[in-house]
Amino acid sequence: MLRKAFRVTVPVLLGYLAIGIAFGLLLRNAGYPWWLAPVMSALVYAGALQYLAIGLLAAHASLWEAALLALVVNARHMVYGLSLLDRYGRAGWRKLYLIFALTDETYALVTSTEAPGGVDPTGFYATISLLNHSYWVAGSAIGAIAGSLIPYNMTGLDFALTALFIVLVVEQFGSATSKLPFLLAALSAAGAYFLVGPKNMLLVSIAGSVVLLLLFRKEVARDVAR
Amino acid sequence: MTSLGEALLVTVVMTAVTVATRAFPFVFFRKRKPPAALLFVRDSIPPAVMTLLALSSFKDVRWTRAPYGLPELLAGLVVALLHLWKRNPFLSIFGGTAFYMALTRLGVVRVILGG
Prior knowledge:
The complex is a heterodimer of chains A (226) and B (115).
Chain A: H1 2-29, H2 36-43, H3 47-58, H4 63-74, H5 77-83, H6 95-100, H7 104-112, H8 121-146, H9 159-175, H10 180-196, H11 201-215, H12 217-225
Chain B: H1 4-28, H2 36-56, H3 70-86, H4 89-106, H5 108-112
């Protein structure tokens, strides 16, 4: 099972190492001891938020601002949990960890991968979550300890995450009975990009997609029934 | 700059809020069943989220400055075409990433654009 789970997570390994190393290096350069980066990555475990946190710390922002930023940046996760209510519903004690570790990338893998036959799905998803988590912590630690020794030419490795998402879209587009959710999401993404700009586009476009899906509920349901 | 002690506090606060956003639907729908509209959203949102994650990873590309996002667009296209062709996730992801890293390093796009 570990082998199969590892295979699924390899693209995330590359992406998380690359982004984690950059995060560790930035936080260290902001003047903090090396261990703060892996500690933050182990606890907060939210990439976009952690990058913003570096600026927040530099600006000496208040705890309220930190809480508000975390809420706005991570509000999208509420939608993720919604679609995993069943899959994680019977996970027992491991449910707490599965929920804690629900990043964009883990969500993408868990919703698009079926546990191999004869394997306990909860264990499979927990292994995927734990592997991704460990890549992120390891990357941050490496960046904070040895970031300045790593040659600059690692840049671009984080494209592996973009590639992973593109592959998942191609896979799901082929098998989906209704293509409408893809189209609505693309419209929503374009609208959010031009309305609120790149910084908040993911949150706004997810909210927009929920609204659009509800508006076109009949059409999507008709496609699925066909 | 924020002191180390305060930075740790910020870490704890961000952890708590992040966990709260991830746990919210599980806590909220522990006892009650989600209404039909939300069940519909639950079933139809994964493909939409995947599309959004893919598109939003291009959000910080500078489209108006050389190389005008061409390495990202071309590499994205290579990933999609490789995957439609061979259906091998490893090949698509590593091939596309290697292609992207080569493009950004060799300055091929800059040469094509005459820059």
